[in-house]
Specification:
Number of domains: 1
CATH architecture: 2-Layer Sandwich
CATH topology: Double Stranded RNA Binding Domain
Oligomer: single chain
Radius of gyration: 21 Å
Strand content: 25-35%
CATH class: Alpha Beta
Number of helices: 3
Structural class: alpha+beta
Helix content: 40-55%
CATH superfamily: Ribosome hibernation promotion factor-like
Length: 129
């Protein structure tokens, strides 16, 4: 039962937008499936915004730009990937965002595990036993 609630929660945390391209139901499902992996990594993620932009045609090829924004505690994580195939661009964006989340997690873990000494400007009172 909890799994069903989690998948409903995933759908509400992922928002998608197509610019100069219609996101078909099949493409929306693929985006939801690919980017839901990010939500499983980090429970602090508030939402994931994905924007797929189709640039004007260059010759016979289309050019795509996928931009992802992860709203998380602290500064948001933003990445962008460009290419000629929409699905490859989305795959690259998932990989890039995943890497940024991992790097951020490692930085926070290092700070938590290696705290800095605190300098106190005054002398501490002696404690009687």
């Amino acid at each position: 039962m909890a799994h069903a609630n989690f998948s409903d929660d995933i759908g509400s945390k992922i928002s998608m937008q197509g610019v100069h391209i219609d996101l078909t139901p099949a493409m929306q499902n693929i985006i939801r499936e690919k980017f839901s992996v990010l939500l499983r990594h980090n429970e602090w993620i508030v939402r994931v915004d994905i924007r797929l932009h189709q640039d004007q045609q260059r010759g016979r090829k289309h050019h795509y730009t996928a931009t992802g924004l992860i709203a998380v505690r602290g500064p948001d994580i933003i990445a962008s990937v460009k290419g000629d195939d929409a699905y490859n661009v989305l795959d690259g964006l998932v990989e890039k965002l995943d890497e940024l989340i991992r790097e951020r997690h490692e930085r926070f873990k290092d700070k938590r595990n290696h705290p800095h000494d605190v300098e106190i400007g005054a002398e501490l009172p002696k404690v009687r036993e």
